[in-house]
Design goal:
TIM Barrel, single chain, alpha/beta, eight-stranded parallel barrel, about 230 residues
């Protein structure tokens, strides 16, 4: 299980990379679960990480497009293109449980970019949407939560449902990731589910997720993950 750490600027990105993150995820936590950064900021972070990535081939970079509603398909696609042009490895797009989700997934699959749909799980997962995304052969699929105050992913989704999601996505050949206000005490539960990667922000901030990264917390989490491998 690899460690994804969400960052908002160049200093945080470098801190996360040096602190042991396998995936650097670019987002603005103060703007929602998948709050987007300006494309100039995304491009600056990608450039700052270039030297590190040349030395550490396994280091990957993803970026969110922002919390756009499923009804704004044209805006979603435009934002995907703009973020992809910054040179990230993956573009993350939140997928809400609405009737508009299938059309958005179909459109995303046709962009030619490495899009990672992120299913927002606050209202549960829609099996039909997950099955469609698996069939469309995205490189990876994730689950995350929108309301971080409601608790962690494990408070909102039953463990057996998460197990089913992991198995279904892995069976399709895609990578699978879990996120949602995850913290160190949930590491054992995550390891039992064995996703390919787990996303962290709350766990590595001294205060809430909108605060700055804490090097000590980042180091503790990285060491715990390394010890479990």
């Amino acid at each position: 299980m690899r460690m994804l750490v969400s960052v908002r600027d160049v200093p945080e990105a470098l801190l996360a990379a040096h602190g042991g993150a396998d995936l650097i995820d670019l987002k603005e936590p103060r703007e929602g679960a998948l709050g987007g950064l300006p494309v100039v900021t995304i491009a600056a972070i990608v450039e700052a990480l270039r030297t590190l990535r040349s030395r550490h081939r396994g280091l990957l970079v993803s970026a969110t497009i922002g919390d756009l509603p499923m009804t704004e398909r044209a805006a979603i696609l435009a934002r995907v293109g703009a973020v992809a042009a910054c040179g990230v490895d993956y573009v993350k797009v939140g997928i809400e449980r609405t009737p508009y989700a299938p059309a958005v997934l179909d459109a995303l699959a046709g962009t030619g970019h490495a899009v990672v749909p992120v299913f927002i799980a606050d209202r549960g997962l829609d099996d039909a949407h997950v099955d469609l995304a698996c069939a469309l052969k995205f490189p990876a699929l994730m689950v995350d939560t929108a309301d971080k105050r409601a608790g962690s992913l494990f408070d909102l989704i039953a463990t057996d449902e998460l197990q089913c999601f992991v198995a279904r996505v892995r069976g399709s050949g895609a990578l699978v990731g879990l996120a949602g206000a995850l913290r160190l005490p949930q590491l054992a539960a995550l390891q039992r589910l064995a996703p390919d990667f787990a996303g962290f922000r709350s766990a590595v901030c001294a205060g809430d997720r909108s605060g700055a990264l804490d090097p000590a917390r980042l180091r503790t989490l990285a060491q715990a993950l390394q010890a479990s491998r």
